Amino acid sequence: MGLEAQRDRVKEFAKTKGLDLIDVIQEAASGGVQNGEEHSWEHRPVLLELMDRAVAGGFDVLLVAKLDRLSRDYATLTVLERRLQKHGVDVVSVAEQNGDGALAEFIRGQLALVAQLERAMILMRARQEAATGPSAHRRRATACAAGRGISTRARRRARAAAEAAALVGLSGQRVL
Q1: Which value, to the nearest 10 degrees, does the dihedral of the CA atoms of residues 105, 111, 115, 117 take?
Q2: What does each C-alpha distance from 25 to 47, 107, 148, 172 come to in angstroms?
Q3: How far apart are CA 22 and CA 73, in angstroms?
Q4: Residue 27, Cβ neighbours under 10 Å: how many?
Q5: Which of 123, 130, 158, 166 gives 141 a disulfide partner, CB atoms 3.0 to 4.6 angstroms apart?
Q6: Can you tell me whether residue 14 is helix, strand or coil?
Q7: What does 87-155 look like in DSSP terms, one character per residue?
Q8: How confident is the model over 93-119, as pLDDT tens digits?
């Protein structure tokens, strides 16, 4: 889902729920923790400013296209959500429709852990490819896309992998 699609979904959700969308925030920084950080917001000035606005009472709801757009780190997402709630701000995800209560909190936590795992796997593959060049799997997926004598099953797997990679590689839009 590209930036424009994320914006459109957030605007439509706000409209249907009767929310006044007062600002749209976008940040290109990674949502994962970097070396030496406790939380991912330490290298994200836009998110830090957003947190300051929450403390000042600048908004009541932080509306995000997906929770992983806010952070791909479980600890950061959990602490961030608690800090925002402390200042009267609810975090609402358009994609996950997070709800309230213990079960909703559990599901949000699991989604945060999945996002953290995805980020770690992406980094691992990127480091591996930087060290050794594209993997055999990537070459096989390229061959499947080109249809060079690869089985239908392998083509389906390659297509599914490409679609999953596109979903994981979403840019870092943040929506207020």
Answers
A1: 100
A2: 9, 25, 44, 10
A3: 27
A4: 18
A5: 158
A6: helix
A7: TT-EEEETTT---SHHHHHHHHHHHHHHHHHHHHHHHHHHHHHHHH-S-HHHHHHHHHHHTSS--HHHH
A8: 888 765 665 666 777 677 778 877 887
Cα separation of 99 and 22, whole Å? 22
pTM of the model: 0.57
Amino acid found at 153: R
Amino acid identity for residue 61 in this structure = V
For the four alpha carbons of 8, 10, 13 and 18, in that order, the dihedral sign comes to: negative
Amino acid symbol at 80: L
User: Nearest to residue 68, comparing CAs of 88, 42, 98?
Assistant: 98
Position 12 confidence tier, pLDDT thresholds 50, 70, 90: very high
Distance CA 84, CA 77 (A): 10
